[in-house]
């Protein structure tokens, strides 16, 4: 996306860039993005436990969250193996990556760390992510790294189901009552500024493209836009401009303030009781 | 192997896949206990590596919380049957599909009150197509409707029957 103005969410100077980047290979960084997206969005779902508007939605939200946690475990499990084999680092497992890293070491998109808000915010965030995730995973099933291809194939089945559900909700809320339409539009307008990052290509993405792992970014962008446009049209919602001002930074560890609070809650127990083996 | 099964015929000379299958046939899925791990289609390979039994198991969903428990139960059942130190391997590819549910497994699900998957997952039944007709596992009526995409576990959706008015789980296609 050339039209997106780039600005770091955290406004860090380059001198303050965390050093972790220098010790990570592009492949590890790329896998952290995949794993952290699933982990952080999964945690947003976990925060809704006991708070969904209806029992059926409670079950759905928790199950989607579980799928995402499983995907995160598969991606981060591969990261931990690569860290041991390629960086000669001490073996750290997927749990360690999830529970012992600080915010600036996370590589998830800003979109997935946005707070839960109302149900329109929750389903809007899910839809904008799913519409991208499904096409990304589909591309990754053709990666020339067999491990990535098999995790992607497994995740794709689940993400396809997630997209069906989140699309239906965006349509139901958008094409619903005056109140639900207004809320869905407001959620969309607010979340839109975090979508630029989905289609942004940096040197890590470029390296993975050249390595035959990441799918073609133009195809991915086109497919995301087609899915978004189809659903928003049926939902009678107005689509914000693609060249609107966008926040970026999550992919290189510059996050919005919300991630720190999420991690504080998610990581409290393992950090407070580092020697515990049973929870 | 098998020599410490006092009073029982030797179970599992190396290469006796049928004997191993017979043991695994008795290991239930912890969340849907009427079907065994074999009927669920998650046992993907039985092999011997340097004389050590190796069983490959695939998870139904990435985040299925029963994955570790299932692997542990399989391990325990094999040890109890006389296989020393069996190796349980997790295999992701090819990804599990409901097409691998055996006929017996489907019938057991129905009898238990869970509607088995309708149609084949290979037809991309998750998107772009109308919902299949899911017959009520309790009264057999086709007048059913989906209440929620998800049921009590990730592998099920929630339906209700408009004739007998009962809610039921549908083991969805994947």
TrEMBL record, chain A:
The gene is paaI. One of its GO terms (biological process) is phenylacetate catabolic process. Residues 1-16 have a biased composition (Low complexity). Residues 1-21 are annotated as: Disordered. It comes from the Bacteria. It holds the Pfam family PaaA_PaaC. This is Phenylacetate-CoA oxygenase subunit PaaI. It comes from Vreelandella nigrificans. One of its GO terms (cellular component) is cytosol. SUPFAM superfamilies: Ferritin-like (SSF47240). InterPro entries: Aromatic_CoA_ox/epox (IPR052703), Ferritin-like (IPR012347), Ferritin-like_SF (IPR009078), PaaA_PaaC (IPR007814), PaaC (IPR011882). NCBIfam families: PA_CoA_Oxy3 (TIGR02158). Signal peptide: none annotated.
Automatic annotation (TrEMBL), chain B:
It comes from the Bacteria. Residues 125-172 form the PaaD zinc beta ribbon domain. Residues 18-79 form the MIP18 family-like domain. InterPro entries: Fe-S_Maturation_MIP18, FSCA_dom_sf, MIP18-like, PaaD-like, Zn_ribbon_PaaD. This is Phenylacetate-CoA oxygenase subunit PaaJ.
